[in-house]
Amino acid sequence: MKKSFLCFILLALCGFAPPKLTKTKIANGITVLLPSDWQPMDNLDFSERYPSVRKPLAAYTNAERLVDFSANISATQWPDTDIDLAKGFFKASIMNMFDKVEIITEGIRESHGKKFIYFEFTSRVNGSRKEEGLREPILKYSYIEYLVESGRTLVFSFTCPKRQQQEWQETARKMMTSVRVK
Global pTM? Predict the structure, then answer.
């Protein structure tokens, strides 16, 4: 607790104040607290940055287009709601998606009668040599949570560059724990 408070004071002195969060309806029956100055991503923006077969339920970004929140319905369908099995599967997927992953925290939390699986982590995708030169590694801070229900799995994701983790980590936690699904 003291460490979080000290980080908050240090960031405030350096010119970063946590953004004001506003309750936002992102889909029918789904709300989340989002920074009031964030804008919805358009389809082109989302598809360029997050290639996917499925259109997201919602996707928002900050003015610099570096910090994002999205909500989606996963293609993975579960025959039942075995949350421990699902947690292991999702963790393995995250570990395989990146070259390096450092889990900060993970678990299952209950909110308004629903159980969310969550993973907070930093990741690295190694750079590569291409004809045009060396591509630098991509370092990210992410907080992802899953809601496994009969017939669908909802995925909520927060990401920012790792260099901005200290600025956004507490806000990301507040945003992700504010997700409400009716």
Answer: 0.85
* CA atoms of 16 and 148, how far apart (whole Å): 35
The per-residue pLDDT for range 58-109, each reduced to its tens digit, is 999 999 999 999 999 887 777 777 899 999 999 999 999 999 999 999 999 9
What mean pLDDT comes out for the span 128-133? Answer: 62
Neighbours of 45 (CB within 10 A): 15
Number of domains in the chain: 1
Q: Name the one residue in this structure whose structure tokens are 């908050």.
A: 8
Q: What is the CATH number of the domain that holds 44?
A: 3.40.1000.10
Those residues whose C-beta lies under 8 Å from the C-beta of residue 125, and which sit 6 or more positions away, are 98, 99, 137, 138
For the chain, the maximum distance between any two Cα atoms, rounded to a whole number of angstroms, is 53
Q: How far is the C-alpha of 64 from the C-alpha of 82, rounded, in Å?
A: 39
**Rounded CA gap, 96 and 89, in Å?**
11
| Cα torsion 167, 65, 40, 126: sign | negative
Task: Label residue 59 exposed, middle or buried (CB < 10 Å: 0-12, 13-18, 19+).
Answer: buried
CA distance 39 to 161: 18
Supply the range of the domain harboring residue 61. Answer: 2-181
